[in-house]
Amino acid sequence: MHPTLMSPIHIGKLELPNRILMPAMHLNLTPAGEVTPELIAFYVERAKGGAGLMIIGACTVCPSAGAPFMIRAQTDADLEHLAPLSRAIREAGGRAGLQIYHGGAYVHSFLIGGEPAVSASEHVSGLTGETARALTSEEVGALVGEFASAAERTKRAGFDCVEICGSAGYIISQFLSGRTNKRDDEWGGDEERRMRFGLEIVRATRARTGPDFPILFRLAGNPFVEDGGGSGLTARFASALEEAGVDAFNVTGGWHETRVPQLTGAVPSGGLSYLARVVREKVSVPVVACNRITTPSLAEKVLKSRHADLIGLGRALIADPEFPRKVAEGRSAEIVRCIACNQGCFDAVFNLVPCRCMTNPAVGKELELAAASPAKVQRKVVVVGAGPAGLAAAWTAAKRGHKVTVLERAASPGGQLRLAGARVDRHGFWELAEDLTGRAVLAGAEIRYGVEATPELIASLGAEVVVLATGARPTRPPIPGVELPHVLQSWDVLANKVDPGDRVVVVGGGATGCEVALHLAERGVIDPETVAFLLLSGAEEPLEIVRLATQGTREVTLVEMTKKVGKDIGRSTRWGVLQDLGRFGIRQLTATEVVRIEPGQVVLRSGEKEHTLGCDHVVLATGVASESALAAALEGKGLQVEVVGDARTPTKAITAVHDGFDLGASL
After folding, report:
1. DSSP for 136-182?
2. Which residues lie closer than 8 Å to 63 by C-beta, 6 or more apart?
3. Which of 75, 400, 493, 551 is disulfide-compatible with 375, CB 3.0–4.6 A?
4. Helix (H) or strand (E) holding 472
5. Which pLDDT tens digit goes with each residue over 176-219?
6. Residue 370 pLDDT more than 80?
7. Residue 165 has pLDDT above 70, yes or no
8. pLDDT (tens digit, 9 = 90+) per residue, 242-285?
9. What was the pLDDT predicted at 79?
10. In the chain, what's the furthest Cα-to-Cα distance?
11. What letter does residue 307 receive in the DSSP assignment?
12. Residues 598, 657: Cα–Cα separation, whole Å
């Protein structure tokens, strides 16, 4: 029953009913920089779900701190829009704090009127590529006051606590690190002076908010950048911060510019909780562990291992706002899991569009869905296909009271999600298939497997509405030789229906091509357990272990017509995929066309030159086409047919889920 996770705890004099904290995340639900009804509805839903404490933000402390669409606590006028948010959360039974923030060199100049971003010292930002200017000593002192004033407004706005953002490479991190702080005055030089900016902010905040208002501090557990100071500096900083007045530490991963994955599926579940332990060993106040903790069992393990005192559930509470309540009620099996895809949350933020979620299509729609009622007329709905679009439609329609039957040709659900989850760090897509299926069944939908949906069968079920979610099929490009027996489809490779030889050419460098190339290149590498065994036992040198973990037994070449591979992969994950392509030794031939395929080789053209490349197999990852032929036959029988997901237009899984959800909600 996860007793530690659900036990109460104090942060200062603030008592929390459980140890679940939702960290601050920008959601792009505040286009004018003010709290909106949509933002309130989002957090009210999580308050009702039982989160112990939610941190709202990031909230800018002055005009140079961040984007105009971020909520702000810059003047007393901002209390007018902050107070309704804290009040609504409190009325819903929740507790909330406000994170106050300044991005420093991470702020794009176009977001602050064209002025250069500010930082501890002049340097080229590793995130924006722009040159930030150094703050004068007087400006640094004034900025300390801006933080303290914002904290005081947080208290006056009715929030339960304030969190100072000193993580992710933002301005406090930039002052702390010798990488970005080259000053030789009272604000920089040796380690003690580099700490001063953060310490003065805490002291000024404590002076302005009084002795009883809880102060949290968000820390980068390890910057994971060269000359960043490492986790040792973070721990020493935390110790000094506690002495200055901090009541709790919220420990996350590294800076935004790090090349170490922080939030993708490549990060083992709970793999960064050790960073909280490093801080916890140096302080006596509560410490929060974050990053890739997605299940109550894992959260309980982290707490019992004494790595932390609380658990930060960010995207996990985006995916399922009822996570805490389900744990408390013994319904952990019903929790909808975050799959670390980043497509709806972080990619959305980078693209300046509102946050959404692949596993929870209701995100951002809480306000409109709260007003929705069960269907006035209950109808018989037949869904053809148990892929992401079909399952989402079945779940939503059944939840609204319709009688839903799902017909699936395969022996298991998921459709293309089963292929997307072929690699170990992508198994979250299998979890998505399981969770969508579970929600559909729990809502009352019947799923029949191994059934070929025909117009006659559908009509015999008394269907009043047919949702066609039959997905797509891979295509073959018009390349001479594409019909040769050694030419395979990527779907068959990912499904392990075929076993390519030692030399493989993958045609198509989009997301699917990259995934199948990595899937192939991983043959023969040692697994993580073996890596740990060899390392801990000293059986091999570390560099040899790395080689064995990244050098497989296939030679894989990825061929792409355009100048870049992975162009259709989201910004927050593409860099990691490119990193893996290099790490696993996959040869990448860009701006290269396949002229023809011959037995034992492919003929390629790069510019004006043709050359051959020997291979045992060619794998096609060149696109898909919709499978919707059944629609015409069904419409011929007078049935209402709704086509969703890839059957309508080939798309990404997140769009397919939302497509099915929206249709089910409209029936």
Report:
1. PHHHHHHHHHHHHHHHHHHHHTT-SEEEEEE-TT-HHHHHH-TTT--
2. 74, 112, 113
3. 400
4. strand 472-474
5. 999 999 999 999 999 999 999 999 999 999 999 999 999 999 99
6. no
7. yes
8. 999 999 999 999 999 999 998 888 899 999 999 999 999 999 99
9. 96
10. 82
11. S
12. 40
Question: Is the separation of the CB atoms in 78 and 153 below 8 Å?
Answer: yes
Average pLDDT, the chain: 95
Give the N- to C-terminal CA distance of the chain in Å, as an integer.
38
- CB burial of 314-342 (b: ≥16 within 10 Å; e: otherwise) equals bbbbbbbbbbbebbbeeeeeebbbbbbbb
Q: Report the C-alpha gap between 117 and 105 in whole angstroms.
A: 5
String of b and e for 599-631 (b: at least 16 CB within 10 Å)?
A: eebbbbeeeeeeeebebebbbbbbebebbbebb
Give the Cα separation of 631 and 455 in Å (integer).
9
Write phi, then psi, for 204 (nearest 5 degrees): -65, -40
Q: What is the DSSP letter of 72?
A: B
What does the pLDDT average to over 105-121?
A: 96
Tokens of 110: 């176009």
Helices (H), 538-645: 542-550, 571-583, 630-636
Residue 280: in which H helix or E strand, if any? helix 274-280
Handedness of CA 590, 592, 593, 594 (dihedral sign): negative
**Amino acid in position 492:** D
Hey, what amino acid is at 471? G
Measured between alpha carbons, how far is 317 from 327 in angstroms, rounded to an integer? Answer: 13
The reply to whether the predicted model has a pTM over 0.85 is yes
